[in-house]
Write a structure and sequence with these properties.
The protein is of the alpha/beta class. 22% of the residues lie in helices and 20% in strands. The termini are far apart.
Length: 367
């Protein structure tokens, strides 16, 4: 039906823009395949160097490579894997075991505290010029409102200075607009989006292949056409369901799933610095029957254990939680380091760990 479709609610404001710019292990900017010889030749000509023809590694594979000694150094920009990854004790040990860890961030995260070198960067919204892309593929201009404090520098300035110190003299000192124009010259999706058009029109949606193109409100609008031209009626692919890798046992009879709460974000680095009237911290939500069977009352403290470790936390008895299931968030690792007990088995298609399916045991703590 016309207008129907799926709209993903992304976790952060510029997730789409990061993917668009090539922050993926298998894509150049504009979602062009690294393994495509024509795409690779175009970027090699622009960069003046030969590029690896193989896909890179996503974060889960990077951690495996660290474990096998294949990765000995890491440069982490705007990420907090010391707190965010499943089986966090194992992840932290891998990060600590690197020959060198460099972190570039606007916060002194748990990962930054493990780093050999910390490069303070500027805030993307208030302190930087450039662009941001929403989940509807709309590219808009952003402008600096204040100057970055102290030694903080813009991300592209940090990377450019590092490149020059490593002998890449051709890097220069590009402005944000010059970087954007380079992107336009390499990504057909963005070719028609000049700074002038973005300013005048308040943003454009890719694909926008030329300066006379109006932008594309719908990416897959052809799905609503009566004549699909021989194309399949849906771009979906079939995936066979696989159950959790970690099975419930007599020792660990309950299932733990983790997720977000309304007023907090991921590991809490960005959201825990302000007060909220609806924030309750990381508590374990339990089914009333399960809690009663274990002699646990609402508000009591418990020890939650998995094959990887244990954490202490409070309980919140919730009638809408199914029997056999428990739930908590992961926003307060300084108070409840829940990812110490989550399972780092991972899905081979998505690369995502089993945050939603750890086997646990819950025990009441005696006063």
């Amino acid at each position: 039906r016309w207008g129907s479709g799926l709209v993903p609610l992304r976790g952060q404001n510029n997730v789409q823009g990061g993917g668009d710019m090539g922050a993926l292990p298998n894509k150049f900017p504009g979602f062009q395949d690294i393994t495509n010889p024509d795409h690779r030749a175009k970027f090699e000509a622009a960069y003046g160097m030969e590029l690896n023809p193989n896909n890179g590694k996503h974060l889960t594979l990077m951690l495996e490579a660290m474990e096998h000694g294949e990765i000995k150094a890491a440069y982490c920009i705007g990420e907090n894997p010391a707190d965010s990854e499943a089986s966090a004790g194992h992840s932290r040990a891998l990060l600590e075991g690197l020959d060198i860890l460099v972190v570039q961030d606007i916060f002194m995260t748990a990962t930054a505290q493990l780093a050999d070198v910390v490069l303070p960067s500027s805030v993307g919204w208030a302190e930087c010029d450039g662009t941001v892309t929403s989940s509807e593929r709309r590219v808009q201009r952003v402008r600096a409102a204040v100057t970055p404090p102290g030694a903080c520098r813009h991300d592209h300035e940090i990377i450019g200075e590092l490149a020059k110190r490593m002998g890449v003299e051709s890097w220069g000192d590009p402005t944000p607009q010059e970087l954007w124009d380079e992107l336009r010259s390499l990504s057909p999706l963005h070719a028609g989006m000049s700074y002038e058009r973005l300013e005048a029109e308040g943003g454009l949606q890719w694909p926008c292949p030329s300066e006379d193109h109006p932008g594309s409100p719908f990416l897959h609008g052809w799905l609503w056409e009566d004549d699909l031209g021989g194309r399949a009626p849906s771009p979906f692919s079939i995936t066979e369901h696989e159950g959790p890798k970690e099975q419930l046992t007599d020792e660990f009879p309950l299932r733990l799933t983790t997720g977000r709460s309304l007023d907090s974000y991921n590991t809490g680095v960005q959201s825990s610095g302000f007060e909220s009237p609806i924030r309750c911290g990381d508590e374990l939500d339990m089914n009333p029957g399960d809690a009663a069977d274990l002699g646990i009352a609402d508000g009591e403290r418990v020890l939650v254990s998995s094959p990887r470790g244990s954490v202490e936390m409070g309980v919140r008895v919730q009638p809408d939680i199914p029997a056999g299931l428990t739930f908590t968030t992961f926003h307060f690792p300084d108070l409840v380091d829940i990812n110490l007990i989550t399972n780092d088995e991972w899905d081979r298609d998505s690369g995502t760990a089993e945050f939603k399916a750890a086997a646990i045991r819950v025990e009441k703590l005696r006063a």
